[in-house]
Amino acid sequence: MTRHIRTPASGAFATRPAQFEHANPPDQDRAREAAKALFARLGGDAAKLRDLIERAGLTLDDPRLGCLRAAVEGAGGGVVGEDAFCATMSEAEAGLIGRLADGDLAIANFPVFKTRVAGLFDYAAGADWGEMRSAIPALAKRDPDAFAMGVCSIDGQRFRIGLRDGDEKTDFSLQSVMKAVNYGVALELVGTELYHRHVGREPSGQGYNEITLDERKRPHNPMLNAGAIITCSMIHPTWQVEARHDFVSRIWRAGAGGAEAGFARDIYESEASGSDRNYALSYFMREHGCFPEGSDLHEALDLYIRCCSIESDVDRLSAMAATLANGGVCPLTERHVFSRQTVRHVLSLMLTCGMYDFSGEFAFQVGLPAKSGVSGALMIVVPGVAGFAVYSPRLGPKGNSVRGVEFSRRLVEAFPWHVYAPVMVDPDLARPDSAKA
Ligand code: GLU
What is the pLDDT of residues 20-71, one digit of tens each? Predict the structure, then answer.
């Protein structure tokens, strides 16, 4: 499915016009024709229009539906006039509403999808074991029993659910989930070749904070602490650390649907005052010449800890996962956050290295690119379809959210999304004449 994805040749961050802002003046006549045809088809009943939008998994506060929102709200629940409906509607907005009315969004039958996903969530809720194993004291104080899931399709259809009231709105620090995003950021800034001169792309087979390097004296990959610290050293190394943190937060925000990135200051302070392992790792790396010229160990580490403390909820995290699923364009903000090539690299390493030293097992069982963090956060990408986010802080022996892994397993049992799911389809059974056999 290629619609919606317009990726530039090079990946400058979020400076390109949003998809619905036109470089050339929009064609008003064509937009008006499209809007009139839609109005003739859908009618002006405000309640029905609202229902149509919501059943498809969109909401009227979606920035892409600005004209429709104004018309429906202006009608105060009554009848929307044709003029109001067509007033400022762009071709893009009319196109989105048209596809929605045709059932042609990425997830065609959203109500059924929601019911099935909620069922998987309920199953996963039963996996209520695991420990808060974090060495970060402030993180260990979070509610261990929170459980939430969010999904965002590449067309921006959304759904979130929590086990208890309010769980679905809980903020959590991203921790290692941010490693995948920062890897994309660094690739955009320095390019693949230079980046991978400093960081490898093999699973290490060892713990995430192990003091170890590959045979070329590089961290094994960007998804481990060692690689993630070197990644941070490549993000605008000459800037003040606060400005670097702001820069990363802005990219996070563009990819995560446009809402402000939170920051868990207590977790940042807690980790900053007790980061012995990460310091040891950094000095070890400096001894081996791992840091790029011109970068500073202390600042790189500070930025790394700040990035781990960026806060999200499942809504924002699923939007970021959907940006990756959508080839680097955020479905909600329409911002080009990453180039397609960057996304391909990020997803490749999420698939092979994203789940700590459980990555091979996760690839075997689930077959989807994912990244987890010690806070219990997990993002799962279904390329070309949707992004999922799970939050549940109880961790299994390898440091992944127990319920997150359980939910992922159930997901690929219910939907044919494992990377090798196509080989499960018997072509003989798919032939029309097979019924005669
Ligand atoms: N801030 C954590 C650390 O550096 C992140 C670990 C993780 O989520 O894997 O140890």
Answer: 444 556 678 888 899 999 999 999 999 999 999 999 999 998 989 999 999 9
309 CB near ligand 1 (under 6 Å): no
Question: Which three-class secondary structure string do you get for the chain?
Answer: CCCCCCCCCCCCCCCCCCCCCCCCCCCHHHHHHHHHHHHHHHCCEHHHHHHHHHHCCCCCCCHHHHHHHHHHHHCCCCECCHHHHHCCCCHHHHHHHHHHHCCCCCCCCHHHHHHHHHHHHHHHHCCCCCECCCCCHHHHCCCCCCCEEEEEECCCCEEEEECCCCHHHCCEECCCHHHHHHHHHHHHHHCHHHHHHHCCCCCCCCCCCCCCCCCCCCCCCCCCHHHHHHHHHCCCCCCCHHHHHHHHHHHHHHHCCCCCCEECHHHHHHHHCCCHHHHHHHHHHHHCCCCCCCCCHHHHHHHHHHHHCEEECHHHHHHHHHHHHCCCECCCCCCECCCHHHHHHHHHHHHHHCCHHHHHHHHHHCCCCEEECCCCEEEEEECCCEEEEEECCCECCCCCEHHHHHHHHHHHHHCCCCCCHHHHCCHHHHCHHHHHC
Quickly name the fold that domain 119-421 has: Beta-lactamase (3.40.710)
User: Could you tell me if the CB of 176 is within 6 A of ligand 1?
Assistant: yes
Ligand 1: which atom is nearest the Cα of residue 228?
4
pLDDT for 40-52, tens place per residue?
A: 999 999 999 999 9
Confirm whether pTM is higher than 0.85: yes
pLDDT tops 60 at residue 409: yes
Q: Is 270 in the pocket of ligand 1 (CB under 6 A)?
A: no
The pLDDT tens digits of the residues spanning 301-320 come to 999 999 999 999 999 999 99
Distance (angstroms) between ligand 1 centre and the Cα of 357 equals 14
Residue 233 confidence (pLDDT): 98
**Sequence spans of domains, the chain:** 19-101, 119-421
